[in-house]
Amino acid sequence: MDASVGITPATPLDLIIIGGGINGAGIAADAAGRGLKVLICEQQDFASATSSASSKLIHGGLRYLEHYEFRLVKEALQEREVLLKIAPHLVKPMRFVLPHQPHLRPAWMIRTGLFLYDHLGKRESLEASRGVRFAEDSALDEKIKQGFEYADCWVDDARLVITNIQSAFQHGANIRNRTSFVEAFRENHHWKVVLRDEQTQQLSTHYTKGIVNAAGPWVANILQQNIHMQSPYKVRLIKGSHIVVPKLHNGSEAYILQNNDQRIVFVIPYLHDFSLIGTTDIEYKGDPRRVKISATEIDYLINITNNHFKQHISEADIVYSYAGVRPLCDDESSAPSAITRDYTLTIDHQDGHTPLLSVFGGKITTYRKLAEAAMEKLIPYFANMEKPWTQHTPLPGGDLSEGVEGLQQQLEQALPWLEPKIIDRYVHSYGHCCYQFLEGIQGPEMMGPYFGAGLYGCEVDYLVKHEWVNQIDDILWRRTKVGLLINRKQYNHLAYYLEKQHNLVS
């Protein structure tokens, strides 16, 4: 995983991919698996921006039907089934309860929407929608008597990104975390690209036949400031914020709450003991790296939650919050919630050479189809590109012939001293890949130092060696989510270990 020397004009890369979010990672994996020589660079950590700040759902987008986004919804619904098959350790089915509020949307409208939701995509493993009545023991406010229930899926968003990066690496891609794209020029039917290692500040020059600009919120900036060309589209940054509170209900189902502004908010079971509440939709004009939740957004999420649940929350209950920006292709919609979540791909070339493909918009659910569409646009420039392959090939760790529950049972039998909650996290974070750090371990003393919240040295060592970890937050908030659970003393213990054992200083 060490940085290689610059690629010469005589041995150029096929593609340099800018951006280590879900779209860049998905394109890198797809391209590398088709036999292309790929380098992917990310200025911070993989999934450190939008792709770790989502609502963590693989869903068709029920509300997108109101904006007639039938193509997008159909594609997203179909992708739910694909991702359940190729990443069963990361993507799991979840039932969603929609309390009925007659003054917001009539029942016939919701039934129609759910009928389309059930039938637009090929539904194989997920159950159909149905009407429900709420009993006295419901977690919802007593005034809410009935509603609807339908199926979608939950995903660990940041781990979906890193798993695609692992797939790209396994197919020969050059992986560059914390590496900035400085500039690029066309030169003799190649791109001459300058990258900067953000840890050493060292510059390196590379030659490539093509570039993919998947920089998310920075896609237009990259075009204008680093490649020195006009962006074909404007990007509208829409802020979405979430709060995490102690769990509001004991069930495994999520809730989708309607609000008077016609938006919806999810309340989703999170990390066993919490509820994840979000998201908001607000136009954002600042630096995407500095985005954070506002007091107005906190009040908004608290109020809609308290309007629906018996158990009320206040700002004092918030244990964590996060915000991200969705880089949406500007379709001149007046309301942020009405802007399309569909993706747009553009390509620029010079006399049939040096393609530059830019990605505008997109959502985590359709990342794989977006990658396929990107490769389809690049076929004319790469005659030796192999055929599509990602639809039926499990992501690393996802080849689970015994199923998720079977893997869980195997690990519980092999590691009886570990809490089932820890094993559950291993299974749903790594799938079979967890054997890379658990193989041969016969007792707790072999797990390495314990840092709290189920985090042991053997896992930390694996993350540093195999998942491009450079800083403590890479581990705590993206490769795992245990940053929500550890205290300051445990944090300092981990930081000391990373410095002494792996020479990593945050």
Automatic annotation (TrEMBL):
InterPro entries linked to this entry: DAO_C, DAO_C_sf, FAD-dep_OxRdtase, FAD/NAD-bd_sf, G3P_DH_FAD-dep
Q: Where does the source fall among the domains of life?
A: Bacteria
Indicate whether tRNA processing appears among the record's keywords: no
Pinpoint the Alpha-glycerophosphate oxidase C-terminal domain residues. 390-487
MF terms from GO for this chain are: glycerol-3-phosphate dehydrogenase (quinone) activity
> Which reactions appear under catalytic activity for this entry?
a quinone + sn-glycerol 3-phosphate = dihydroxyacetone phosphate + a quinol
Q: Cofactor(s) for this protein?
A: FAD
Kindly state which keywords UniProt assigns to this record, in alphabetical order.
Answer: FAD, Flavoprotein, Oxidoreductase
Q: What are the residue boundaries of the FAD dependent oxidoreductase domain, all occurrences included?
A: 14-367
In Swiss-Prot or TrEMBL terms, this protein is called: Glycerol-3-phosphate dehydrogenase
Q: Which organism is it from?
A: Spartinivicinus marinus
Q: Which gene encodes it?
A: glpD
